[in-house]
Amino acid sequence: MRTGKTHGGSDWFSDLANRHLCWAFAASGTTLFAITTRLARAGLLTRGQALCLMRGSMHLHGIAIRILRRQR
Predict the structure, then answer these.
(1) How confident is the model at residue 14 (pLDDT cuts 50, 70, 90)?
(2) What is the DSSP string of 43-60?
């Protein structure tokens, strides 16, 4: 098991947690987008509802990107 500090003073556990959070946000965004497109194509969502959910998907991806950038 690793101990000590790595790049930028953050420890390995914090880096691991951030990687998992990043993955979770990216996966959630991708899943939300896929579900939204399926529901919109099936006619179950209005255009406004679909756009709102797609913006939410992009927001989740943006959070994942910000976590990655903060790691550097």
Answers:
(1) confident
(2) T-S-HHHHHHHHHHHHHH
